[in-house]
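Researcher: I'm preparing a figure for a lab meeting and need a structural model of a single chain. I don't have an experimental structure, so a prediction will have to do for now. The sequence is pasted below. Please return the structure as tokens so I can convert it later.
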Amino acid sequence: MTRLRRRLTVRAAAVAATTRAAAEAQAAAAVAAGTAAVVAIGGDGAAHAGLQAVAGTGTPLAVVPAGTGNDLALALGVPADPATAAEAAVADLRAGEVRSVDAGRTGGRWWATVLCCGFDSAVTDRANRLRWPRGPRRYDVAILAELARLRPRELTLVLDGEPRTLAATLVAVGNTAWYGGGLRVCPAADPIDGAFDVTVVGPVSRRELVRTRPRLTAGTHVTHPAVTVHRARRVELAGEGLTTYADGEPVAPLPAVSVCVPGALAVVGAGR
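Model: Understood. Here is the structure written out token by token.
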């Protein structure tokens, strides 16, 4: 942390918080006090906490990737090296180069990457509780553990007011393409187009899900017959006993309504 603060070469104050709520509160206080930017050092969870403070305010978020999943950094084109990412953020701040991207809002929570429900949210929940292994391999272990409990769930999905009831293994609502440590679940999602891409995976066997998973990295799973892709600005989800996750963090139990808010997030250090 100290080394990264030196790389920032601007006046920086570290937020030392041991809980997500404390981090969000301190970041919000900094924004209210007029800070030039909020820098999230860590993975998608750190970015998610910073997002709660800056979304809709015009204060930019800088992402310095140093966590288990760095999907927002990947989507925004932030350098993978933390020190280089910090330098890129400083360069944009000094030059006044700020980029605006869309953000999702579900209930009272903002999110930036993908909101998921079903098998994938169960995997994320388990991955967050694992202490080993570190990095993307944690998701692999969580997937294997959740496969034993795999079953499709009946969901009501409403896209821009058009309802449908379906059996789904997972639903992914993408503001950006990646989640789960580099999986392109919504490969065509674009965070500047004002709409979500919604990937729905219908009933599949355990064997078929395992066979299809490698295609998630390239985003070619969307051609599988059990997969459908939709676009919507407003997504409503309802079902029994399910919780949505976004940016690797719990967001809201079902039923939940998600809206795409164009240009809600200002970012620096992106597009490299």
